[in-house]
Structure formats: structure tokens, C-alpha cells
Design brief:
heterodimer, A: alpha+beta, Pnp Oxidase, Chain A, 7-stranded antiparallel β-sheet, 3 helices, 7 strands, 20% helix, globular, B: alpha+beta, 6-stranded antiparallel β-sheet, 36% strand
Chain lengths: 132, 126
Amino acid sequence: MPSLDYQRLGNFRYAVITLIGDDGFPFSVSTDFKILPDKKIVLQKPAWPSKLDGKRVNVLFNHITGLPGGGYGERRYMLVWGTTHEDRGTLRFEPESLSEWDEKILAFDQYCAKCAPQGAKYLGTLQASVEA
Amino acid sequence: MPLLPFYLPDSGKFVVTSSILFSKKAENVKKNPKVSLLFSNPEGSKAGKHAVLVQGIAHADDSDLDHGWEKYLSYWRKKEPYIDAYLAEREKFGWFWKRIVVQVEPKKILAWKNGDTSQAPEEFGA
């Protein structure tokens, strides 16, 4: 996976855990987290869902800053896929894959250019469905 | 993923518009329409410290990528007034303005008072 920048990760204030519930709907819950000196990510275990041991989840670390005139600045997020392990009332999170954006690192127009292949893929699929 | 949702009071649905550049979520909705929207960041949700999870059925409409989303522009402008500057450069950001409309019909709502997720959420049928 792309390397996880633990220093930048530590600048986020909270995390959102998402997993697929028994009813098939995604279930998301926000929680606190900390990064240990050995780069282990430890999430505070939410009350619900009650069992998160060995669960495949994604964890979103997200930040926006409200602007005085409306809208948002300092937009950044890290979306990390991995597995949670219950450990003495906390959740140890083992990251496996990552997608991220930080507008201070990659300006919005450059981010759009980077994502052009996904746009082309979508249009290609749409075109094929129209022709079918 | 962080998103900018709009609530439609007349229908009780939520709407998200997504550029084809960031269309993975729309692809996923077509495969599995079960989705959730979490409002947990007070900066964006305007729900105070409370956290609210909306679970629902999503429908992705890409029948008019160039204009189908425009009916929601007034909602968007209220949340991000500077969007007009990007609109003025519509040709420069051509594919950004090819947008899929995703409507979410709520089925279940879960809420954590004061965002206290150490407690089980309250559940409401939609």
C-alpha cells in the first residue's frame, strides 16, 4: 500500500470506523484514536457494534475548516482499509490500503487531473451500456 | 468518503452529486444500493456535537451528466459559495462538471446524543 504518513495522520482529531452490518447496510461510527510510538494505531472502542474483533473495516480520518464566508478550507482526508483487533477494551487497527487527499499537498485542479482515469473508466462503462 | 450532502425536505431524501472523476462510489451504489451517511463533524454537519447516521437506499442517476445536477446548485451554493468561481471555469474543469446525482432514501436513522459513542445509539425508523 502507499506509505502511511503517521505524522500527518496524527494531525487528525478523530476517526470514523465503517463496516458492513448484519443487515447489509454500512455502519459508521466516530471515535477517538491515538498513535503509539511504535506506529500502532489504537482506536477507542465504541459501544456499538459490540463485536469488532477481526473485522474488515475502513477508517476515515477527515478534516475541514469552516471559512468565514461559507464553505470549507484545509480539506484533507485519509481513508484506510484494514482489520480491527480487540485488545483490552481498545481496538488495534492494522492498516492494509490507503487513499488520501490533502489540498495543501495536491491542489484541487491537480487532484482532478490525477483522477481522470476514473472519469474515463466511468464514461467508458456508460458508453458501453448505451450501445448495448 | 467526505461528501457534501443536501437534504430535500419535500421528499425527505438526501442528495449527493459526484463528479465522474470521483465516481467510484457511484459505481458501488449501482452494485449495492445500501449506503449510509454519517453526520459527525460539527464543522460540516451543523448538528452541534450530536452524531447522526442515516442508512438508506441509494439511486445513482447518470442520465444527464451535464445538467442533471444543476437543479441542486442552489443547495450547493449555500454550503460552498465559492462554487461559482469554479462554475465560471466550467470548461477548464470539464469533467468535474460531469456529475452523477445520487439520491438516498432513508430507511433507518441512528443518533448519538452529544456524539457520545461510548453509548449505544438511539434508533429511529425513517
